[in-house]
Amino acid sequence: MDLSSSVAVVTGANRGLGREFARQLVELGATVFAGARNPASLDVPGATPLPLDITDPDQVAEAARIASDANLVINNAGVSTFARLVDGDLADIRKEMETNYFGTLHMVRAFAPVLKISGRGAFLNVSSVMAWLGYEHSNTYGASKAAVWALSNGLRAELSGDGIQVSSLFLASTDTDMMADVDVPKNDPADVVRIALEGLAAGEQEILADQAAVDLKATLSQDRGRFSGAR
Ligand SMILES: NC(=O)c1ccc[n+]([C@@H]2O[C@H](COP(=O)([O-])OP(=O)(O)OC[C@H]3O[C@@H](n4cnc5c(N)ncnc54)[C@H](OP(=O)(O)O)[C@@H]3O)[C@@H](O)[C@H]2O)c1
């Protein structure tokens, strides 16, 4: 797809990868609606602020009404609570599912008809290598990101007849607030977003933003327990 002429909606555009998505899309010449729960926290010159909590279906529907000429949705907003499966707080685990899976699903259901009108639309759903890996303190989050992976696979089947591209993004640790307290090597968000947008423009279905994503995808048919390649 031609990003320079696209009309894009980015969720969670007030910080981290979302802000970088919005900034780079503006730089490429796209018209950008920058979604944020608190629009006052947005700092993306050239983008139009869009009040958007993806867990609120009414607000998502209103966003689809405002951005009625969108042909690209970057489903970036997400949370990680670092809860454990066996003894973590269920409220945290539900919050990850409500945001990462159901929030993304709300966006898809509201914007699929909008993208269909454009004739050549696209969703980019941000998953994670944690969809493919068991890793201490990231497993409830991983389950929600595996749900986003499955969602993307299913959408591809449901939406291809409407001319809608569905791409999913896989990345390991990246230097944003989400990973601020985790002391591991991290990607530069600008690099991740550049690779994501190049993959999106090229029509890639699964965009692998770093070596860990490449390595993990290559081992998907193997015993998951033995791999320790995530950063
Ligand atoms: N950083 C990593 O290592 C990494 C690795 C793999 C995948 N990812 C994924 O990349 C995406 C971006 O994460 P990030 O690293 O940029 O994290 P971040 O810096 O923590 O930013 C998260 C963004 O999501 C927004 N958000 C959270 N809940 C929301 C909701 N209900 N409605 C709308 N916006 C909401 C936040 O808005 P507020 O400011 O209002 O909270 C914020 O803008 C996420 O999907 C994350 O799971 C990140």
UniProtKB/TrEMBL annotation:
Pfam families: adh_short (PF00106). GO terms for cellular component: membrane. GO terms for molecular function: oxidoreductase activity. InterPro entries: NAD(P)-bd_dom_sf, Sc_DH/Rdtase_CS, SDR_fam. Keywords: Oxidoreductase. It comes from the Bacteria. Belongs to the short-chain dehydrogenases/reductases (SDR) family. PANTHER family: DEHYDROGENASE/REDUCTASE SDR FAMILY MEMBER 7B, DEHYDROGENASE_REDUCTASE SDR FAMILY MEMBER 7B. This is SDR family NAD(P)-dependent oxidoreductase. The lineage of its organism: Bacteria, Bacillati, Actinomycetota, Actinomycetes, Micrococcales.
